[in-house]
């Protein structure tokens, strides 16, 4: 009886795409249209480089659920050049990014200790 209940629970969860302990299923669920981003909207990353003159920052980042984007290293524009002040390669950061026209733009960023 207990085995049947466990099997039924596993089948139901698998049908929803959320198998316990399956990080890929969690990532896939976050990428579905209409998926909600975490309340803070911030993602974690590490600064690889800062181009103050060009107004860009290169970040190695984790998942960005609000953009349906997985972990990678990429160049972002910034909403304001002031966001780049005090940042340098190697800094751990939390940031918020948005899709603006055909580009991804950092709209908020803070160093993490």
Mean pLDDT across the residues is 78
Cα gyration radius (Å):
18 Å
Strand content: 35-45%
The description of the largest β-sheet is:
5 strands, mixed, barrel
- CATH fold title of the largest domain: OB fold (Dihydrolipoamide Acetyltransferase, E2P)
Large-scale geometry = globular
Strand pairing plus helix content: what structural class? alpha+beta
For CATH, the homologous superfamily of the largest domain is named as Copper binding periplasmic protein CusF
Annotation field: number of helices: 2
**Residues in helix, %:** 10-25%
CATH class of the largest domain: Mainly Beta
Number of domains: 2
N/C terminus separation? 51 Å
Order of helices and strands: HHEEEEE
* Parts with pLDDT < 50 across at least 5 consecutive residues: 1-27, 29-39
Number of strands: 5
Please tell me about this protein's structure.
- With 113 residues, the protein is an alpha+beta fold.
- The chain has 2 domains: 2-31, no CATH class; 43-111, Copper binding periplasmic protein CusF (OB fold (Dihydrolipoamide Acetyltransferase, E2P)), CATH 2.40.50.320.
- It is built from 2 helices and 5 strands; from the N terminus they run ααβββββ.
- It has helices at 2-15, 23-31, and strands spanning 43-51, 56-61, 72-78, 92-100, 103-111.
- The longest helix is centred in the first third of the chain and has 14 residues, at 2-15.
- The N and C termini lie far apart (51 Å).
- The model is unreliable at 1-27 and 29-39 (pLDDT under 50).
Tell me the layout of helices and strands.
Elements: H1 2-15, H2 23-31, E1 43-51, E2 56-61, E3 72-78, E4 92-100, E5 103-111
Parallel strand pairs: 3-5
Antiparallel strand pairs: 1-2, 1-4, 2-3, 4-5
């Amino acid at each position: 009886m207990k085995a049947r209940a466990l099997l039924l629970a596993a089948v139901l969860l698998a049908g929803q795409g959320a198998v316990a302990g399956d990080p890929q299923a969690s990532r896939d669920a976050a990428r579905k249209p209409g998926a909600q981003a975490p309340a803070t909207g911030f993602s974690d990353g590490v600064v690889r480089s800062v181009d103050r003159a060009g107004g860009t920052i290169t970040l190695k980042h984790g998942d960005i659920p609000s953009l349906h984007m997985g972990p990678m290293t990429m160049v972002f524009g910034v909403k304001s050049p002031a966001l780049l002040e005090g940042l340098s390669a190697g800094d751990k950061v939390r940031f918020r990014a948005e899709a603006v026209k055909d580009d991804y733009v950092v709209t908020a960023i803070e160093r993490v200790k």
